[in-house]
Design brief:
The complex is a heterodimer of chains A (83) and B (853). Chain A is built from 3 helices and 4 strands, in the order ββαβαβα. Chain A is α/β, with parallel strands linked by helices. Chain B is an alpha+beta fold. Chain B is elongated and about 140 Å long. Classes of the chains: A alpha/beta (83), B alpha+beta (853).
């Protein structure tokens, strides 16, 4: 699994796959103040990214990979602006 | 006509034939890659050839046809019947241009109207704004959820954007925006769109936007993809086509200008000096004082915080002044936008070469606009494609001129180096030197898939060692062979003379020995030259797939054509003579034979009728059969029609058997059609077919079964050139009767002649044979005479109506001789097929027994 859940914080690492989408959704639905760290992630599956874009949480760290950071940050910040 | 033009016409006709065949194949099997590659290659080659020979109308229609083929190749259009129709029509138009060129050595009429119509027809199948070799370029549509281009661009950091802008402007780099809308259920198909987007070649950045609002989080379905992806890339259209092949129906690609990168960012904050700056900026621009403008920008930048919008805009303005100082319009628009603190709007335009190339020590050409790059790329493609044709040097010279002009345009410095490579190329008659020079200095050597196929076709041609020879040369060679045959035939006479007049048996024997040797060699030479003239039946058959396709569609019939024995070879004169008869017979099958699908269904036949064209050997002849499974010929109907048309009497109508009834269709003027159609029904066709076939020494027979179909059988000689002829004597004159039409020769005493209804006959092997005196047939007033034993020399010959006997004064020998047809007014005289020269130099008239009666 590409996501480690510790209390109200989720740590994304390596490759986060399709199988991680539903558990993430369930976790976000239960959290009041979710936090997510993307620092160690190398790839996020589209289904997971979609969950992130639909959900509400605070980003504690963006992906270390600059290209991935650009895309993820751009997508999530755009959603925040619209909300 | 010069050799080059002659070769062009010949090659163009071959290419058009290939194109036609490929189109018909693809119509039945759209997935046939080999046929598509042949089609594409043929159109491309024909286009290139027409351009070289400067026939612009032809080049334009072929170019547009190529655009459509590119659209099909790239998956933007499926190959349909309608596309086949429009391309076949376009190629027919090209064929008519070729015919005009062949007749006049140039195009003498204006074809603009037809050309535009064909182009318009092809254009209607093209995706909007399609260009050859490119992806679809659609005008941006402003749908509600589509982001603005600038909102996508800003995801790319500014310093990155500036570098990309510089590269794109200086090198004429193409930039594209990819809009990818994955299918909703793509996750179930193991597709990860985000991964695909991240790995697009030369990905410059982009953004992700949901195409519809997200549902409430509590009801959210995470397995339904509702995201759209927007990505900017500098990958070439070819790279993108390959990479996006698997998702091509979910992707749109738009070309974008590098000026789209100019998106100032930051907090907007006005300043008291802003107005002065802008006014001064416009003034310096108007005076073309770039140094002052540059200084003003620098000063303004020092006064503002780097995080502000104005500082970002100043950075872009400075870049424009440094990079494209000659483009006043762009700089003016930037200033105007800055003045109003608005996003600058630049026209959506093709990227133009904005700067001169930078020459390095190695003489590299590293700055090319897209136009120059494309032009140079085409010249490289042409130079790589060696044809080994007489006009290759001219083509190479044209390429050299074009390349030099391109180098002059981009102000390339080392033109002397290029000239030296060009000279070496022309001197060595190989393009290696020039290609090597270009390869070291440019990056123009990526080959499109069609080039590989062209190379493989060249390899196949080399292996087959086909030689294209003007048919007039073959005719001349044939004539010379005929003269050799005649000349050697005089040697036996010489041998006889030597024995009789010179009383030298030894000399006579030596001449006979020499004759045998020359006879053997002449026979082989004759055989070899005749082989050159032999062409496969395929040449006669190849027009029929298109004919059957077009006519069956016109008549709303479904017809399948099968052809067999195409590889069988016959003399080219036989092929030429068979052309019109075969067309008529096939048209008859389509028009009169094959029924409409609904009629066939009622008769429990397959809705698709079949026409079989078969060729096979039978002795020294070739048989061609045209067999259909149509309605057949009803002998009773034929008889009734013939009677009504006064072709036969009532008595004949009642006495004719089935075969004789069916053969009435060969009668001139006979027709069963109530009305004439465009195809047939005028009653002259079958008569002409029979006449034409018999003229070449052949025969036609029809057999038919009502409701089941008809078979027309043509029996034709393999060669019409050298003929076996029996020499006969009548009234002290010699005539030749072709052995093909002869059954046997008999000597018959006068007592065996019987008169039946004032007509001379005889019985031979229980068969009554009509007899005709050759002198009567030739209008010679004296009667034929028997030999000393009271026997008449009778040749039994085969006629369409049966075997008849021709009574002569005597038989001579059998010879193989080249028979020359009579020409001019003499050709109108019936009864003679031609003349030949005998060994003693005398002229022999060869009879056409079919026309004697």
């Amino acid at each position: 699994m590409g996501i480690d859940y510790k209390k109200n914080r989720a740590y994304f690492k390596d490759t986060v796959t399709l199988d991680d989408a539903e558990p993430l959704l369930n976790w976000l639905q239960k959290q009041k103040k979710a936090e997510i760290s993307f620092f160690k992630v190398s790839h996020i599956h589209t289904a997971v990214l979609q969950v992130l874009m639909a959900g509400e949480f605070v980003v504690t760290a963006w992906p270390k990979d600059k290209i991935l950071q650009s895309w993820v940050k751009g997508a999530l910040e755009r959603m925040q602006e619209q909300q | 006509m010069n050799n080059l033009l002659s070769l062009f016409i010949s090659e163009s006709r071959d290419l058009l034939q290939q194109i036609g065949e490929s189109l018909l194949t693809l119509e039945k099997q759209p997935g046939d890659t080999a046929a598509f590659n042949t089609l594409f290659r043929s159109v491309h080659t024909l286009k290139g050839n027409s351009g070289l020979l400067e026939f612009p109308e032809m080049t334009r229609i072929l170019h547009k046809s190529e655009d459509l083929l590119v659209a099909v190749r790239d998956g933007k259009r499926s190959f349909t019947h309608n596309i086949a129709d429009v391309l076949l029509d376009a190629m027919d138009f090209v064929g008519s241009l070729i015919d005009e060129i062949a007749a006049n050595e140039k195009l003498i009429n204006s074809h603009e109207k037809s050309l535009l119509e064909h182009i318009k027809n092809i254009q209607s199948f093209l995706p909007d704004n399609e260009a050859a070799g490119g992806s679809a370029v659609h005008a941006s549509t402003q749908e509600e959820h589509s982001p603005s281009l600038s909102s996508i661009i800003v995801n790319i950091p500014e310093n990155e954007r500036q570098k990309l802008f510089l590269t794109a402007v200086q090198e004429g780099q193409q930039l594209s925006l990819i809009i990818y809308s994955p299918e909703e259920d793509c996750f179930f198909k193991n597709v990860d769109p985000f991964y695909q987007i991240l790995h697009i070649p030369h990905n410059l950045g982009g953004t992700i936007i949901p195409r519809q609002p997200f549902p409430p989080f509590s009801d959210y379905d995470c397995y339904q993809c509702i995201l759209d992806f927007y990505c900017i890339t500098s990958a070439s259209k070819e790279e993108l086509s390959v990479y996006l092949q698997s998702i091509k129906h979910q992707v749109r690609i738009e070309s974008i200008s590098p000026y789209a990168f100019i998106v100032p960012q930051g907090e907007i904050e006005n300043s008291p000096v802003h107005e002065d700056f802008c006014r001064n900026g416009f003034s310096f621009l108007a005076k073309n004082d770039m140094d002052s403008l540059r200084t003003s920008i620098g000063n303004r930048m020092n006064e503002t915080s780097p995080s502000l919008w104005i500082h970002s805009a100043l950075r872009w303005l400075l870049l424009l002044v440094d990079t494209v100082p000659q483009n006043k319009e762009v700089i003016k628009r930037m200033l105007e936008a800055m003045h109003l603190f608005e996003q600058p709007q630049f026209p959506f335009a093709e990227v133009k070469q904005e700067s001169r190339p930078v020459k390095t020590d190695s003489g590299e050409i590293n700055s090319l606009s897209s136009h120059v790059r494309k032009l140079l790329g085409t010249q490289v493609e042409i130079l790589n494609n060696t044809l080994k044709s007489p006009w290759e040097e001219g083509r190479t010279r044209a390429c050299i001129t074009t390349i030099r002009r391109c180098l002059e345009f981009i102000k390339y410095q080392d033109l002397k180096g290029f000239d030296a490579a060009a000279e070496e190329t022309l001197a060595a008659h190989t393009n290696a030197a020039l290609l090597s020079w270009l390869e070291k200095r440019t990056k123009l050597f990526t080959k499109a898939p069609v080039d590989e196929n062209r190379v493989s076709l060249q390899n196949i041609d080399t292996t087959l060692q086909v030689l294209r020879v003007d048919h007039n040369k073959i005719e001349r060679l044939m004539d010379l062979v005929g003269e050799v045959v005649v000349a050697k035939n005089s040697l036996p006479y010489l041998a006889q003379k030597a024995a009789l007049l010179c009383e030298s048996r030894e000399l006579s024997n030596e001449i006979k020995t020499l004759y045998n040797s020359i006879n053997r060699i002449a026979g082989k030479l004759q055989g070899a030259v005749m082989q050159i003239r032999m062409v496969p039946l395929k040449v006669a058959f190849q027009r029929f797939p298109r004919l059957v396709r077009d006519l069956s569609r016109d008549l709303n019939k479904k017809i399948e054509l099968k052809m067999e024995g195409e590889e069988i070879e016959v003399d080219k004169s036989v092929i030429e003579a068979l052309g019109e008869p075969l067309i008529h017979l096939v048209r008859n099958s389509i028009d009169h034979g094959i029924e409409l699908p609904e009629h066939r269904a009622k008769q429990k036949k397959p809705q698709t009728g079949s026409i079989n064209l078969r060729g096979f050997h039978e002795g020294n002849n070739v048989v061609i059969e045209i067999v259909d499974d149509g309605t057949g010929i009803d002998p009773e109907v034929i008889k009734q029609k013939a009677f009504k048309q006064n072709i036969i009497t009532r008595e004949e109508m009642e006495s004719l058997n089935e075969e004789e009834s069916i053969n009435l269709i060969f009668h001139s003027g006979f027709t069963t059609n109530e009305t004439t159609s465009e195809l047939s029904g005028r009653g002259v066709g079958m008569d002409a077919v029979k006449h034409q076939v018999e003229k070449i020494g052949g025969q036609v027979k029809i057999s038919s079964s009502v409701g089941k179909g008809t078979c027309v059988r043509l029996l034709i000689p393999i060669s019409m050139v050298i003929t076996n002829v029996m020499i006969v004597e009548t009234h002290n004159q010699l005539f030749g009767i072709p052995l093909d039409s002869m059954v046997e020769t008999v000597r018959v005493k006068a007592e065996r002649f019987k008169q039946i209804k004032n007509h001379t006959t005889m019985v031979i092997r229980n068969q009554v044979i009509s007899l005709f005196y050759l002198n009567d047939l030739l209008n010679i007033k004296t009667p034929n005479i028997p030999n000393d034993d009271g026997e008449y020399a009778v040749c039994l010959v085969r006629m369409a109506s049966g075997i008849v006997g021709i009574v002569t004064d005597g038989f001579r020998n059998v010879v193989d001789i080249p028979v020359r047809p009579l020409e001019g007014k003499l050709a109108l005289i019936p009864g003679y097929s031609g003349t030949a020269i005998l060994g003693d130099g005398s002229v022999l008239l060869v009879l056409n027994v079919q026309e004697l009666f």
